[in-house]
C-alpha cells in the first residue's frame, strides 16, 4: 500500500526525528535547513502518521508507526509557518516538550504555538488508544469502575476538548474565519473525529448494535452507567449530524474527507438504535427525541448522497428512499445489489421507515420486532 511505502520512506529520510537540537534556528552557517523546511519535515512526518493510523484502522499489528518512534514536536500554527517564525510546541503528551530543549528557550505556554493540525494529530492518537482498548475489552478493570481504562480514555477526551484554543472551537465566529481562510473542511473533520471517538468508546455499551466478539455483560446494578453512556453516545452521534449538515450548506467540497461517510453511517445507526431500543418511553421528551433522530438521519442520508459523487464508499451507504436518493445512487443501485453492498444501508433504511410511519414507542417496537422476524436473513444493526 502507498501508506506503507510512505512510512518506510519517512524512516529512511529520518524525518521522524528533529534535524538537530537547534529548534529555533539560531545557529548560523552550515547546510542546516531553513525554518520553513524544518516545519515542512514535521508536517510531512505527522501526515504519514495519520495516514498510517487510518490505513491500519488503529489496529497495532496493521500499523507501522508507533508513537514512541516519532521524536519531533507537533506542527506550529499557520501564522508562524507562513511568516517563517521558529517556535517551540508540545509533543503528543499534553504539557510536554522535547526533552533535549534547554529550559531557557521553552515558552511559558508552548501550546500557544500549535495549530489546528496539532490538535487533529492528538485526537487521532486518542482514537488509536480507544480502538486498542475496545479490541481488548477484558484486560483491566471493567468500564464502570473509576480506575478503568474506559474512564481514563473518557477523561482524556474531555481534556482534549477542554484544551482546545478559541481558533479551533466549533463556533459561529470560527466557522466564518475558517471559511475565509479555506480551512472549514479541516475544522469539520477534527470535530467529527472527536465526536466519533465517543461512538468508538461507547460501542461496548451497545453490544447488540456493534456486535463485539466478546461483549461485556452488564448486571442490573450497572444500569445507571449504561443509561448515561447511551445518552452520551446519542448526543455525540447527533453532533456529527449537526456539524455535517451545516458544512453541507457551504458546498460539498467541504465534505471531501474519505472518513466522513463512515462517520455519518455510524451516526445514523446510533441515533436510530437509541430511539428504537434504548430511549425510556416515559421520558417527557421521548417523542421529541424521536422526531429529532428522524430529522437527523434524513439529513445524514442527503449528505451521503452528496458524498457519493466524491467517494465510491458513500454510494452503498446512501439512503435507498427514492424520494431523497440521488441520481448517481439510482444508477449504481443495480451494481450495488450485484456485489452485495446494499445490505449495509438496508437496516438503517428499514428502521428509519418504521420510525417515520409509527406514532408511539410501543408501536415502533412492535413494528421493528415484526420486521426482524419477517426478515431473519438480514443482519441486525
UniProtKB/TrEMBL annotation:
Residues 1-81 form the Xylanolytic transcriptional activator regulatory domain. GO terms for cellular component: nucleus. Transmembrane segments: none annotated. Keywords: Metal-binding, Nucleus, Transcription, Transcription regulation. Residues 362-381 are annotated as: Disordered. The keyword Nucleotide-binding does not apply. InterPro entries: TF_fung, XnlR_reg_dom. This is Xylanolytic transcriptional activator regulatory domain-containing protein. It comes from Ustilaginoidea virens. The lineage of its organism: Eukaryota, Fungi, Dikarya, Ascomycota, Pezizomycotina.
Amino acid at each position: 500500500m502507498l501508506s506503507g511505502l510512505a512510512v518506510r520512506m519517512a524512516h529512511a529520510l529520518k524525518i521522524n526525528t528533529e534535524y538537530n537540537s537547534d529548534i529555533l534556528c539560531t545557529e548560523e552557517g552550515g547546510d542546516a535547513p531553513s525554518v520553513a523546511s524544518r516545519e515542512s519535515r514535521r508536517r510531512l512526518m505527522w501526515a504519514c502518521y495519520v495516514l498510517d493510523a487510518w490505513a491500519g484502522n488503529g489496529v497495532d499489528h496493521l500499523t507501522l508507526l508507533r508513537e514512541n518512534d516519532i521524536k519531533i514536536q507537533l506542527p506550529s500554527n499557520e501564522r508562524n509557518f507562513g511568516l517563517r517564525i521558529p517556535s517551540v510546541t508540545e509533543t503528543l503528551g499534553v504539557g510536554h516538550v522535547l526533552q533535549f530543549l534547554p529550559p531557557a528557550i521553552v515558552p511559558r505556554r508552548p501550546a500557544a504555538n500549535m495549530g489546528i493540525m496539532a490538535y487533529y494529530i492528538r485526537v487521532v492518537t486518542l482514537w488509536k488508544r480507544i480502538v486498542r482498548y475496545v479490541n481488548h475489552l477484558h484486560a483491566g478493570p471493567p468500564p464502570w469502575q473509576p480506575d478503568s481504562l474506559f474512564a481514563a480514555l473518557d477523561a482524556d477526551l474531555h481534556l482534549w476538548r477542554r484544551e482546545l484554543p478559541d481558533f479551533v472551537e466549533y463556533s459561529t465566529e470560527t466557522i466564518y474565519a475558517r471559511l475565509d481562510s479555506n480551512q472549514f473542511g479541516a475544522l469539520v473533520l477534527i470535530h467529527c473525529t472527536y465526536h466519533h471517538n465517543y461512538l468508538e468508546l461507547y460501542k461496548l455499551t451497545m453490544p447488540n448494535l456493534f456486535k463485539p466478539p466478546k461483549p461485556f455483560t452488564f448486571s442490573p446494578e450497572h444500569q445507571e452507567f449504561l443509561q448515561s453512556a447511551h445518552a452520551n453516545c446519542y448526543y455525540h452521534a447527533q453532533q456529527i449530524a449537526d456539524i455535517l449538515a451545516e458544512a453541507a450548506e457551504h458546498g460539498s467540497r467541504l465534505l471531501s474527507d474519505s472518513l466522513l461517510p463512515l462517520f455519518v453511517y455510524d451516526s445514523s445507526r446510533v441515533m436510530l438504535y437509541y430511539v428504537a431500543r434504548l430511549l425510556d418511553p416515559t421520558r417527557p421528551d421521548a417523542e421529541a427525541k424521536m422526531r429529532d433522530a428522524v430529522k437527523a438521519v434524513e439529513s445524514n442520508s442527503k449528505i451521503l448522497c452528496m458524498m457519493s459523487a466524491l467517494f465510491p464508499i458513500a454510494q452503498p451507504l446512501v439512503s435507498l428512499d427514492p424520494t431523497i436518493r440521488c441520481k448517481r445512487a439510482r444508477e449504481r443501485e443495480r451494481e450495488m445489489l450485484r456485489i452485495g453492498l446494499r445490505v449495509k444501508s438496508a437496516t438503517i433504511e428499514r428502521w428509519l421507515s418504521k420510525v417515520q410511519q409509527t406514532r408511539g414507542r410501543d408501536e415502533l417496537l412492535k413494528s421493528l420486532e415484526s420486521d426482524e422476524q419477517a426478515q431473519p436473513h438480514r443482519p441486525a444493526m
